[in-house]
Every structure is written in C-alpha cells, then in structure tokens.
Write a structure and sequence with these properties.
Blueprint lengths: L6 E5 L4 E7 L7 E2 L4 H5 L19 E4 L4 E4 L2 E2 H7 L2 H10 L5 H13 L5 H6 L9 H15 L9 H27 L12 H10 L9 H14 L6 H10 L5 H12 L7 H12 L5 H9 L20 H15 L7 H14 L2 H5 L7 H11 L6 H22 L27
Antiparallel strand pairs: 1-2, 2-3, 4-5, 5-6
This protein binds acetyl coenzyme *A.
The site of acetyl coenzyme *A (ACO) has 19 residues, from loops.
Length: 430
C-alpha cells in the first residue's frame, strides 16, 4: 500500500490496477473498487459484507474494537446520560443538538403526525389474536405506502422531511395500537405535559385504568430508545437503503427494515434471549447450555451474545445492565430470578475460553428484555420496541441517501458456481 498517493496496487497474473483509497474522517478508510471489474474482469467476494463499505454516511460511527458508538460524533454514554430520545432524534436527522426552541418545534412536528388515518386504524381488526406484533408492524408500516404514495417525489427535500416526521409520529401510534389490540385494552391519550417516553407508556397502559407512570420506567425507556436509535449500516438499515435505492415508496423501504430487524440474529434477539432464559430455567443448567452453545453440531447459540462489529464490548450493553438494576430496584418485589440467571450466565461465558477466543460479549439485547418485561410488556413486543426506536435511524439514513446528488440502485454481484448448460434438452429426450 502506498500512503503517499493513497492507493493500493492489486496484481493478478494478467493485469495490475491501482485502486484509490478514500479517507474516512475517523476510523478505517476504504479502497475504491468502482473500476475493478471494468479493468480486471474481477468482482470482490464478501458474502456477509463484513469488510464492505456500502455507502458514504455522516450519521453514526462505531469502533468495534474499542467499544465506541457515536451519533453525529457524540459518544453514546453522554447521550444516554444527558439527552432525551427526541433530542437524539433531532441530532440524528439534523446533525446538531437542538436548542430549546428547535426541540419544541421538532416535538410539535412529531406530535402533529401522531394520528392514524381511519383505514390504518381498522387494519388491526384483521389480525388474528395470535399474530406476532412484528408481523403487524411490518404490515401496518407498509400499509402507509397505500395512503402516502401518489405525488411523493423521493428526491424532493420537502417530501423527504414530510415523510420523516410522518413516520416518526405514526410509528408510536401503530406500536401502541398493536399492544392494545393484543391486550384487548384501549389506547391511552397523548398528554402534552409528558415526555416522549412517558407518552409511550401512557399510550400503552393508560387507556382503561388510572395508570400512574413510574418515573424509573420512563427514564429507562427513554434510555433504551436512545441506545437503539441508530447503529450505522446494520442488517435492517442496509435493507432500508437497498430497498430505497430503487426509488421505492419510503414507507415500503422502512417496512423492509422492520422485516429485517425481526430475525433472531438481529433485533429479534431480545425476544429470543428471554425465551432462552426460560429454557435454561435455573443456574444449575447454565453449564449444560454453555456446552450446547459451543457444540458445532447443535444449532443453539447464546442469544444476546456476540456482535459482527463489537469485538471488545458493546457500550449499549454496559448501560442497559445498569438500567436493569435500577428498574428492578424500583419494583416492590425486586427479586428477579431471570436477572440473576442472566448475570450468572454472563459471568460464566465471559470466563470461558470459547467465548474469550471469539470475542463474544453480551450485546444490546442481552438485558433489554428483562427491563421491558418488568415494565409489563410481553416478550413478543420487545422487537417492536426496538423498531420504534430505530425508525428515526432508518428514516435518517433514507433521507441521507436521497440527498445525495445521484441515486444509484444497490445491486450486488455473485460468485456463480452453478451449471453451464448451453443446449436445451427437449422434454421427450430427458
Ligand atoms: N453463541 C455461540 N457461539 C457464537 C455466538 C453465540 N451467540 N455468536 C458467535 N458465535 C461463534 C460462531 O459459532 C463462530 O464460531 P467458529 O469461528 O468456531 O465457527 C464465531 O463465534 C463467529 O461467529 P459468526 O457467526 O461468524 O459471527 P457473525 O459476526 O457473523 O455473527 C451475530 C454475529 C449474528 C450477532 C452472532 O454473534 C449471533 O448469532 N449472536 C446471537 C444472536 C444475537 O444476539 N444477535 C443480536 C446482535 S445485536 C443486534 O443485531 C441488535
């Protein structure tokens, strides 16, 4: 590699090419491969995109080796300690922290969109009681594209902004509808005097009773929303970008992100973790499950452990473990066997050679389900809460992509290993 002219040379038997290096503002720079195929006839092979930068972004930075996560340059620890979810949403979208007036205006714009069209309200009645909330969320967000489509110009900034506030305002109402539909309860009323997180709790639980918002729950929920708000080019955000790159309807692109988030290797891990704790049942069984996780003939994995990018620790997990303590201490009966099991499991795994060698640590989803469960949410709602928080990240990335001068459709290549049959065999000859 030449650092003077910032390029690398790639040489094969028949050709040699100089590839430019594009410098990052922080973190790894990238080798620009756009001319590789044209000049060498070769593609690159990176099946799960573990070393491929798919876009330029200014939103979120992660250093997985050091356990660093920053939104617009601000460390997640500071944002979780000092800001609120709406401030973070403003920061992600606008690139700067808001003034008091900015925040008030931003909140009003979100609030103005917290109303569902009649057609969307009735949509929920069509779902079976056993429908998974993520199926309902994917469908209901996608259904917004049936109402907001004609006249949307994805390259028009005004339209992008309208979409951003609409999806940010409507998602909490969709999520609250899903919760109340499953729970056979009425949705609570939004209250102008409450914070965003308090309002989420009010919408969920405030419909039928004199529900009193527990301030520790509200604070913990706000922190969870902040921690989940964005995570650069992960599976779901990349899905939003890839779907969006075709110029599709933006609500349909967000639905692609929700669908990708559902999987247990991604956001669905929070539900899978709590299921796993239920299966392990007691501390006595931990060693059996650790052995299963290490057994390559067994499909069992320690859910909530490991991360594609974090190879030291997930800074969000550290904050969430702390919040978990606070939430459980706020309960009258703070004896939580699941939390005790989780902590013991973490300790044992962290001392095990298998997990040490592979840099496997608890991720954001290891403890979040315990907090949601303490708040009264069923495990099927956990990933929906993740999606609620991540909508701002998805929408910000979609807007960032649309703001680029040229929208280019995402289109990976492949390494073809199938047959090469040039002569068709007619049916009577087979
Ligand atoms: N339990 C047991 N072994 C594991 C685990 C785990 N949770 N995670 C990774 N490994 C092992 C793999 O078997 C592999 O071992 P090998 O080298 O001997 O074959 C090695 O560690 C590397 O694992 P990969 O699957 O190649 O790592 P990858 O980066 O592709 O996957 C992932 C990351 C999907 C998060 C993985 O660690 C996992 O499945 N974790 C459990 C699910 C989970 O918690 N997902 C949430 C992630 S956070 C988020 O998306 C919000």
């Amino acid at each position: 590699m030449s650092s003077k002219n910032k390029s690398v040379n790639l040489t094969s038997d028949s050709s040699s090419i100089e590839l430019d290096i594009k410098e990052a503002s922080v973190g790894p720079s990238v080798v620009d491969l756009k001319n590789l195929y044209k000049e060498t006839g070769l593609f690159t092979f990176d099946p799960a995109y573990s070393t491929t930068a798919s876009c330029v972004s200014h939103v979120t930075y992660i250093d997985g080796d050091e356990g660093i996560l920053e939104y617009r340059g601000y460390p997640i620890e500071q944002l979780a300690a000092k800001s609120t979810y709406l401030e973070v949403a403003y920061l992600l979208f606008n690139g700067e922290l808001p003034s008091v007036n900015n925040l008030q205006e931003f909140r009003s714009q979100v609030k103005a969109n917290m109303i569902l069209p009649e057609q969307t309200k009735t949509l929920f009645q069509g779902f079976d009681e056993s429908a998974h909330p993520m199926a309902m969320l994917t469908t209901s967000i996608a259904s917004l594209s049936s109402l907001y489509h004609e006249g949307i110009d994805v390259k028009n900034y005004k339209h992008q902004k309208e979409f951003f506030f609409n999806v940010l305002g409507k998602t909490p109402i969709l999520v609250a509808n899903i919760f109340n539909h499953r729970n056979h309860t009425n949705m609570g009323q939004y209250d102008e005097d409450l914070t965003y997180a308090e309002n989420i709790l009010r919408l969920f639980f405030g419909g039928d009773t004199n529900y009193e918002i527990n301030p520790v729950f509200a604070k913990a929920l706000d922190i969870l929303l902040v921690l989940h708000a964005d995570h650069e080019q992960n599976c779901s955000t990349s899905s939003v970008r890839l779907a969006g790159s075709s110029g599709t309807n933006p609500y349909a692109a967000i639905a692609a992100g929700v669908a990708a988030l559902w999987g247990p290797a991604h956001g669905g891990a929070n539900e899978a973790v709590v299921k796993m704790f239920g299966e392990i049942e007691s501390k006595e069984n931990i060693s059996k499950y650790i052995a299963k996780a290490k057994d390559k003939n067994d499909r069992f994995r320690l859910m909530g452990f490991g991360h594609r990018v974090y190879k030291n620790f997930d800074p969000r997990a550290t904050i969430i473990r702390e919040e978990c303590h606070k939430v459980l201490n706020a309960l009258e009966n703070n004896n939580n066997p699941m939390f005790e099991l989780a902590q013991e499991l973490e300790q044992i795994a962290l001392q095990d050679e298998y997990f040490i060698e592979r840099n496997l640590y608890p991720n954001v989803d290891f403890y979040s389900g315990i907090i949601y469960q303490a708040m009264g949410l069923p495990k099927e709602m956990f990933t929906v809460m993740f999606a609620l928080a991540r909508t701002v990240g998805w929408a910000t990335h979609w807007c960032e992509m649309m703001a680029q001068p040229k929208l280019k459709i995402g289109r990976p290549r492949q390494l073809y290993l199938g047959e090469e049959r040039r002569n068709y065999i007619s049916i009577d000859q087979r």
